[in-house]
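Blinded run. Sample ID left blank on purpose so nobody reads anything into the name before looking at the predicted structure. Input follows.
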Amino acid sequence: MEEFAWMMLVAAPVLGGAAIGLFFRRVWQRVALSGAVAAAVYAAVLYAMQADMVRRGPPSVGMTLAEPASVAAEVAVVVAPVGMCAALVLHLITRYIRKNKA
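Blinded prediction complete.
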């Protein structure tokens, strides 16, 4: 049961962004907004989690420090297309439901 809860926690921003995208008329608005919302939520959460863990002193010899902003941006670049795909699938499902009801 715990694995299901974590899976839903990971999927919530993507599905939430796709659901918010359904308020718009045009498909490109739905898809673009959903990708942006999912990427922004993931980036903000990841940045907030890593901001407190940044080492404040100088790094050891040969060690590089990860910047929370760059890591969050990398995750946002990966999550944006996932959010867009989820929005497109949700749009196609709702279009199919609307077409068959009429």
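Unblinding after everyone has recorded impressions. Residues 4 and 36 are 25 Å apart (CA to CA).
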